Write the structure tokens for this entry.
Amino acid sequence: MAQESTSDQPVTQITVVEPGEGRFEEALSVMKERARYMSQQPGFMSIILHRSTDGSRIVNYIQWQSPELLQKAHHSPEFREKWDTFGDLTDDIAPDLYRIEEVFTPKSTGS
């Protein structure tokens, strides 16, 4: 059964990262380090890192309790100091915020 979102649902940030040539593993390593830091911040729910099967992109799927808490974590002095140069490892970074519109799950089978 489909479920519609409500305004009190968490926010999802999906970021597609295209590391610079020869920098995929370094970018992924830094993203893992950043994820460990973010997992300790207020409002954190989950971070899932995805590697494209062709090895050209990393997708960072983040769920946070609110956009305000996510922004606060991203703009903390420690985050900015440690990872301010992350953009130097990438050719393109495309973050966007989303709210769940609908969730489809398999139908339960009765016995």
